From TrEMBL:
<dbReference type="GO" id="GO:0051536">
    <property type="term" value="F:iron-sulfur cluster binding"/>
</dbReference>
<dbReference type="InterPro" id="IPR016454">
    <property type="entry name" value="Cysteine_dSase"/>
</dbReference>
<keyword id="KW-0479">Metal-binding</keyword>
<keyword id="KW-0408">Iron</keyword>
<protein>
    <submittedName>
        <fullName>Cysteine desulfurase</fullName>
    </submittedName>
</protein>
<keyword id="KW-0663">Pyridoxal phosphate</keyword>
<dbReference type="InterPro" id="IPR015422">
    <property type="entry name" value="PyrdxlP-dep_Trfase_small"/>
</dbReference>
<dbReference type="Pfam" id="PF00266">
    <property type="entry name" value="Aminotran_5"/>
</dbReference>
<dbReference type="GO" id="GO:0046872">
    <property type="term" value="F:metal ion binding"/>
</dbReference>
<dbReference type="InterPro" id="IPR020578">
    <property type="entry name" value="Aminotrans_V_PyrdxlP_BS"/>
</dbReference>
<dbReference type="InterPro" id="IPR000192">
    <property type="entry name" value="Aminotrans_V_dom"/>
</dbReference>
<feature type="domain" description="Aminotransferase class V">
    <location>
        <begin position="2"/>
        <end position="362"/>
    </location>
</feature>
<keyword id="KW-0411">Iron-sulfur</keyword>
<dbReference type="InterPro" id="IPR015424">
    <property type="entry name" value="PyrdxlP-dep_Trfase"/>
</dbReference>
<comment type="similarity">
    <text>Belongs to the class-V pyridoxal-phosphate-dependent aminotransferase family. NifS/IscS subfamily.</text>
</comment>
<dbReference type="InterPro" id="IPR015421">
    <property type="entry name" value="PyrdxlP-dep_Trfase_major"/>
</dbReference>
<dbReference type="GO" id="GO:0031071">
    <property type="term" value="F:cysteine desulfurase activity"/>
</dbReference>
Amino acid sequence: MIYFDNSATTSIDKTVLQTFEKVSQTINGNPSSLHQLGNYADGLLQQSRKQIADLLNVSSEEIYFTSGGTEGDNWAIKGTAIEKHQFGKHVITTAVEHPAVKESVAQLEMLGFEVTILPVDPNGRISVSDLKEALRSDTILVSIMAVNNEVGSIQPIIEIGEVLKDHPAVHFHVDAVQAIGKIPLLLGRESRIDLATFSAHKFHGPKGMGFIYIKKGKQVAPLLNGGGQESGKRGGTENVAGAAAMAKALRLLLEKAGEKQKNQDEIKTYLMGQLEAYRRVSVFSQKEGAPHILCFALKGIRGEVMVHAFEKKEIYISTTSACSSRNGTASSTLVAMNVPGKIAASAVRISLTDTNTLEEAEFFMKEFGHLYQQFKDIK
């Protein structure tokens, strides 16, 4: 079995799972309880928070646990809107964001906010000059993902941050779900990023667990009110085992991260070169994009047909974003890149992780060659 759908989710690391099981079985207290069992649970929770903060070179008080990337994106966007609505109701985002961002800003529009959606070039990147022109005196938030989950385009986050240095009152949110461990990501005092969201199951951690970075001094209203957990910013009993497992997964991810990125980039480069040799194949990802995502289409063959054809060979790929793949629509990112709808509907995505190998990629191309011949008469 070859698993090339790691941007949808990764398998949980065995040692990470062991940590989750051990904590689940031995730490029974509620972190909010005053007794000794509660103190044990809270101690481990804070230890996990500190480990994540140290790995990212930020302060523990800037890390808040969530259920994953979707909650983090919703919190960053709606929490900013609630907190800063008296200062303005203008939000800027892009045409290639994850549905968690797109639908959050759409909901804000229904509540009277104005949203500017920045277009992208054929490579899926925004123009920094477009961002400059879009900024207004009533802008309260800029939300731009670091790495696109469908084609792997990398947004100019540093350059955007430079522009926003002249607008200190504007919150800058980065969806970093596909970026962590794949490209350099600077947080902390030297960075202009105010909010960043992460999801554990994208880096071999448990599903249903994530965290958000909120820079010290930046105010974001809570979405989940309750018992005052997470410094009063997110109500609900904390998932101690999930936090401990996520912290371990992040540590393992960032160990020898450069070597892992290089390995994935070599596999991606090999696959790109092989696929581009086929006349009816269009490759949408760029060599300069993220090392783990490769999006392409075989003209005339819908994406879901390709997915199921490879599944019969026990090779697992996807039709662009897993969060919207079941609705059968073309990739919104490719449409934003002005790819014709018929070709966009044929798009599929290969997404890699550090456990994938060049031998797997070679086997994939062998099977692709067979399928290409089977589909050669379909226009």
